[in-house]
Design goal:
eight-stranded antiparallel β-sheet, 30 strands, 614 residues, 19 helices, alpha+beta
Length: 614
């Protein structure tokens, strides 16, 4: 659902006007805006209109589907505000609304206003606190509201927004007005705006207190600690699991991969876990996330994603399961908690067994070399997962380089964990050694001075994919590197020269026939560029981890991150974008706030702290 607010003072101030398709705004509010502030994850705007100064703050109470818009009079004796909510009332990824007939039913009683969308179960409650002069029913259609980003992407980019009426309220010194919209019912409508702001401030302060002191003493890492909070959530649609967890005294947590479009993805969750929860001191939530995902392992696979609003997961991934081992390892390294491994060991053994025997989507061990192969027609199984109109842009079927690195790491970890549990199993070590030997024979190219991206590709393709991609970095960055150390320096030097940018690593080196310098245009054009040059900030964490193993100079490594602090003032203020264009001006693109971008930027920043103890 979407809500837009029109507000007018007695002197015709309109806060948050609509832009229409013709390009005009139905407001001149930009002439009155004098200040914007982002603090404690809340935005505040200040408007100066003659002798009247008004501040507007938006706060979303934690773990509620509620938004509060708080208005305060900073200067002046009084002002009369007219607050008119406009609604599209749909999921953010749903088809835009163009209905000519009025699509809502409005009901109200004792200060509670409820809007239901016809022929659906969608319901929204809203109200104003204090009630003041009341609500006037006056139906208005805001026709052809423009979404400029959608327009640039070639999508349907305008829709009708509907307003059932407006509130009229007197704003005075010392008395805030709060517009509340919620799906949580009457209790949420009793929200006191100033109290909600104070609660949010205290929550962020508590998050900072949980983090290690050296983290919050640095302004950039402190901002990332706050930004991380947006991604760690209670699953919204799996209510049965939530009830069971509460009954047993457990927590249930997952990670939203990115805003505005993504839900909880297994791969993103495991890659992000260290930065979002361990670097920030949220160890109990890290444990809860690892426990939660263990309940969903099927046929030896971790879920790729839970579609929004659905209880059943999708499993078309080869790497999410292997990143799970890495995340568990990082959790135990931070906490020293060995009980979680003991709890999960049966699941982890089952995962290895399924991979050795073979499981869904052609995922299984090649008995000739111990390497892990994967691929099925129509599926994209690695993190380079763009697909549009049935076209898998980077199928990478065969034996992708990072999958072998993750597989080897998982086997080495299992050898250690099973021994520590008093149940040693020599096959893990034997298989890991087979993988390491085959990997170093098959992937290193002395002619290219980097690793092949995929070997044993599909029939009709080159048996070895010579593309220079960032996936090779994981052969050095994980706890148990699969690549022989003699090859590290030339590989990292090639990655630095061809892939490194101020914002992260390119997904393909310039000069390759498929290289795309910018991520723009319609969906097909953007997906064609998604992993064909486009820069991903999350990759910088593993590049720096590998770099520091070879060049233990934190001051020099910190230079790779020099531009990232400035990004917190761009795109989504206070967070880090999903991707960037591969060439200057390297514009931010994709999701405006991405979990693994924030997580890996924070982790890399801490790794490169010159004052961090060894």
């Amino acid at each position: 659902m979407q809500i837009s607010h029109h507000t007018s003072a007695e002197i015709a101030l309109h806060i948050n006007g609509l832009q229409v398709v013709q390009g005009g705004l139905d407001t001149d509010v930009h002439r009155c805006l004098t200040r914007f502030q982002w603090s404690h994850l809340m935005p505040t705007w200040r408007y100066d209109v003659g002798a009247v100064v008004i501040e507007k703050t938006i706060v979303m109470p934690h773990n509620q589907n509620t938004v509060c818009v708080v208005y305060r009079l900073i200067e002046g004796d009084a002002a009369t505000l007219r607050l008119r909510p406009f609604l599209a009332f749909r999921r953010q990824d749903a088809v835009l609304v163009h209905e000519s007939e009025w699509p809502f039913t409005l009901s109200f009683t004792r200060g509670l206003y409820e809007v239901r969308r016809d022929r659906t179960d969608l319901c929204l409650q809203f109200g104003l606190a204090p009630a003041n002069d009341g609500f006037t029913c006056h139906e208005v259609v805001g026709e052809h509201a423009l979404y400029r980003v959608e327009q640039g992407r070639g999508y349907d980019h305008s829709e009708h927004l509907y307003s059932p009426g407006y509130f009229t309220a007197r704003l005075t010194q010392g008395q805030a007005l709060t517009f509340v919209a919620t799906t949580e019912g009457r209790e949420a409508l009793q929200c006191d705006g100033l109290s909600a702001v104070e609660h949010q401030q205290r929550r962020v302060e508590r998050l900072l207190q949980m983090a290690p002191p050296e983290v919050v003493q640095d302004p950039f890492s402190a901002q990332l600690v706050a930004a991380a909070d947006a991604f760690v959530v209670v699953p919204g649609s799996r209510l049965e699991e939530t009830r069971q967890a509460r009954a047993s005294g457990d927590q249930i947590r997952t990670v939203i991969a990115g805003y505005h479009w993504f839900g909880d993805w297994g791969r993103d969750t495991m890659i992000s876990l260290e930065g979002l929860t361990l670097c920030t001191g949220r160890h109990a939530e890290a444990r809860a996330i690892l426990q939660t995902f263990s309940h969903y392992v099927r046929d030896g696979l971790l879920p790729n994603l839970f579609p929004e609003g659905e209880r059943e997961a999708l499993y078309h991934t080869v790497d999410a399961t292997l990143w799970y081992f890495h995340a568990i390892d990082r959790y135990t390294a931070y906490t020293g908690d060995q009980t979680l491994i003991a709890e999960l060991l049966p699941v982890l053994k089952s995962i290895i067994d399924h991979h050795v025997r073979g499981t869904r989507y052609g995922i299984g061990v090649d008995p000739l070399d111990g390497l892990l192969r994967a691929g099925a027609p129509g599926y994209q199984l690695t993190w380079m997962d763009a697909k549009v109109d049935g076209w898998v842009v980077t199928p990478r079927r065969g034996k992708p380089v990072e999958i072998q690195a993750l597989w080897h790491n998982a086997l080495r970890l299992m050898a250690d964990w099973s021994t520590a549990a008093g149940m040693p199993d020599e096959r893990y070590g034997r298989l890991a050694e087979q993988v390491r030997t085959a990997f170093n024979l098959r992937y290193w190219s002395p002619a290219l001075l980097h690793l092949f991206d995929v070997v044993d590709g599909e029939p009709g393709e080159e048996i070895n994919d010579v593309a220079c991609r960032p996936n090779q970095v994981f052969a050095m960055s994980l706890r148990h590197p699969v690549l022989d150390r003699m090859h590290w320096e030339p590989v990292l030097d090639t990655v630095r020269r061809q892939l490194l940018t101020p914002w992260g690593l390119r997904t393909l080196a310039p000069g390759h026939p498929a290289y795309k310098p910018t991520y723009e245009g319609d969906l097909r054009s953007r997906d064609a560029a998604y992993h064909q040059g486009t820069v991903w900030p999350w990759l910088i964490g593993h590049f720096i981890e590998a770099w520091l193993k070879l060049h233990p100079d934190r001051v020099a490594a910190r230079r790779f991150l020099a531009n990232l602090p400035s990004h917190l003032r761009l795109a989504c203020v206070g967070s880090i974008s999903e991707i960037f264009d591969a060439e200057p001006p390297e514009l931010p693109r994709g999701c405006i706030a991405q979990a693994w971008s924030v997580a890996e930027a924070l982790r890399a920043w801490l790794m490169t702290d010159p004052d961090r103890p060894e």
